[in-house]
Write a structure and sequence with these properties.
585 residues; alpha/beta; Rossmann fold; 4 domains; 7-stranded parallel beta sheet; 21 helices; binds adenosine monophosphate
Length: 585
């Protein structure tokens, strides 16, 4: 494992963000998040935005676009002032409530040191709550157009102080019928403000809006590097589309199916690298972390262990992997879709070298589907979307491995001491049955992801018709996307309908992916929930513990809070995956 005490200071890679001209407080914020270098869109969009220029950017989700506009916005609007002086100085318009929350959270993280207050405003949320927050004073508003316009008309959102407006996912906003609302909002902000417009496509209506509302904008598109000429590498390129919370489990399954001899798993940030290395370690993989925060000595040690085969997985950031002297790996895994086709090409180039065969695996979330298509266009190669291996696939694969091990044991001989057992059993049992029982035992010894009884749902890419037409209705839209998520129920204990909690509120069952086999007892669950989420233990209802999972009744109103709190804790030394039990739906 890596010795943290000898790590180099974080500043080693801060230079690239500083060089873009960003305020040191913002540079420190991104360093703390584990970003090692700007993505392409950030490198191109941040300098002109800092200079005060308008920007017209073509970039999809997953490219690092949020930071590309949020960092310069925070740089331009500067640190927060006293509350009585606080006015809205930054406005971001986004198509959906989910994106509003996501962008607001990003702005909050980047701007924390500057004391920035950010408010997401979207339809479906209680107006009173938004009014109270607006009254208290905010620096940045991230809003869906319909609700923003509502506030403007009621004069509850004052925009006279706005210095920068961002239209994020402008194509989506137009598709959702927000064109008129956008016009009205842009008319309500000062003409002197700076404007940035980001869109995945540059269709005519987008260009028309840009022509009307942007002032001599700098055009920013992600560099499209062509595949180097020459012999095409023999690389199988596949992607699995899964929900974020299933990513680690999906990765484990894919690794178990593929059985890589050596693999690099790429993550975006140092933090992700460290977390994933730890999680994989906990699941029995020999994984080592490699990122820009390690000293040369630590890097050398990690590399030595990888080359010697002492570790089988290298979990790395792009920066750390760039200078690596690795001949060839059997598998390259993108834990996230890389932020640009260029980054994808670099990563995947680590496998399939010198005419050898390689596999490039990408885990994508549904919303990153467009990035995959973008990569395909640039590489002119197809990335096959495959289904995550099922429990059945894994069991079949394990049985295959058991068979190979048995063949090896037969070839190796030395079975004499065991024949006596067979002979003594043969008096009573059929010899085939004895052999089958022995195979069963050997097979169940190879524990792994196949023992998780839960299927991992493949997440379908977002479909237009599932999106709300207007943000006012967005509250009801999320359920449809989970429709593939029905678990296999046959191995669960039976349960009744959700009842009422002690305080009379609704009760929800949580599914926790740790059970008897992990040594979990009711006290562990009560302790973790009470301590981590601050829930009164008397509010925790019935607990059922099965071999590999547990079900716990908790007050519905606290369920999300508990799920989040459990995610960052361990029970019996194991990371906890918790979610609402689907029987609740
Ligand atoms: P976005 O395209 O804005 O949705 O960002 C996609 C993901 O990339 C988010 O999880 C960001 O936290 C992450 N990210 C953004 N910029 C960087 C960077 N320079 N280095 C590493 N990760 C980043």
């Amino acid at each position: 494992m890596i010795d943290e005490s000898t790590q180099e200071p974080q500043s080693a890679s801060d230079g690239a963000f500083l060089a873009l001209g960003l305020d040191p407080a913002l540079v420190a914020a991104v360093a703390a998040l584990g970003y090692e270098e700007p993505t392409d869109i950030q490198r191109e969009a941040i300098p002109p935005l800092i200079e005060g220029k308008d920007v017209l950017g073509q970039a999809a989700t997953g490219t690092g676009k949020t930071a590309a506009f949020a960092l310069p916005m925070l740089h331009r609007i500067g640190a927060a002032t006293d509350d009585d002086m606080r006015v809205v100085r930054g406005l971001v318009l986004v198509p959906t409530r989910e994106l509003a929350m996501q962008v607001a959270e990003a702005v909050h993280r980047y701007g924390r040191q500057l004391g920035i207050r950010v408010l997401p405003i979207y339809g479906g949320q209680a107006m009173q709550q938004q009014l109270r927050a607006l009254k208290r004073g905010v620096d940045v508003v991230v809003a869906t157009p319909g609700r923003a316009l509502d506030h403007i008309r009621r004069r509850t959102l004052a925009l006279e102080g706005v210095k920068m407006v961002v239209l994020d996912e402008a194509d989506e906003m137009l598709d959702m019928g927000f064109a008129e609302d956008l016009e009205a909002i842009l008319d309500a902000v000062p003409e002197t403000r700076q404007t940035a417009l980001f869109s995945a496509t540059m269709a005519a209506p987008i260009r028309a809006i840009a022509a009307r509302h942007l002032n001599n904008p700098t055009l920013v598109t992600i560099a499209r590097e062509q595949t180097p000429a020459g012999e095409a590498p023999r690389v199988r390129e596949v992607a699995f589309v899964v929900q974020r919370r299933h990513k680690v489990a999906a990765l484990a399954r894919v690794l178990d199916m593929e059985g890589p001899t050596s693999a690099i798993v790429f993550c975006r940030t140092r933090t992700e690298v460290d977390e994933l290395t730890e999680t994989l370690g906990g699941r029995g993989y020999r994984a080592e972390a490699l990122h820009g925060g390690l000293s040369q000595e630590q890097r050398d040690r990690v590399m030595r262990r990888f080359r010697d085969g002492a570790s089988e997985l290298l979990v790395a950031t792009d920066v750390a992997a760039r200078g690596l002297d690795i001949e060839h790996v059997s598998h390259v895994v993108n834990f996230d879709v890389p932020s640009s086709p260029d980054a994808y090409i670099h990563r995947v180039g680590r496998t399939g070298r010198a005419g050898r065969e390689g596999v490039a695996i990408t885990l994508a979330e549904a919303r990153e589907h467009r990035l995959l298509r973008n990569i395909e266009q640039v590489t002119k190669r197809k990335i096959a979307i495959e289904s995550v291996p099922t429990v059945h696939d894994l069991r079949a694969r394990r049985l295959e491995q058991t068979k190979t091990s048995l063949e090896e044991a037969l070839a190796a001989g030395g079975l004499e001491p065991f024949r006596v057992i067979i002979e003594s059993l043969a008096d009573e049992y059929d010899i085939m049955d004895i052999a089958a029982a022995a195979v069963k035992l050997a097979d169940s010894a190879g524990e792994g992801a196949a023992d998780e009884e839960e299927e991992i749902p493949n997440a379908a890419p977002p479909r237009r018709e599932e999106r709300p037409r207007r943000d006012d209705r967005s509250g009801s839209s999320s359920k449809g996307r989970d429709r593939d998520a029905a678990p296999r129920r046959d191995e669960r204990p039976s349960r009744g309908k959700p009842g009422k909690s002690r305080s009379g509120g609704d009760v929800t069952k949580l599914y926790i992916a740790l059970g008897r086999k992990a040594g979990v007892r009711p006290g562990d669950l009560v302790g973790a929930i009470a301590n981590e989420a601050g829930i009164d233990s008397g509010d925790i209802g019935a607990i059922e513990i099965a071999d590999r999972f547990s079900l716990v009744e908790v007050p519905d109103a606290s369920a999300d809070e508990i799920i989040n709190a459990l995610r960052s804790t361990t029970i019996r030394g194991k990371r906890v995956m918790a979610r609402r039990d689907r029987a609740n739906d």
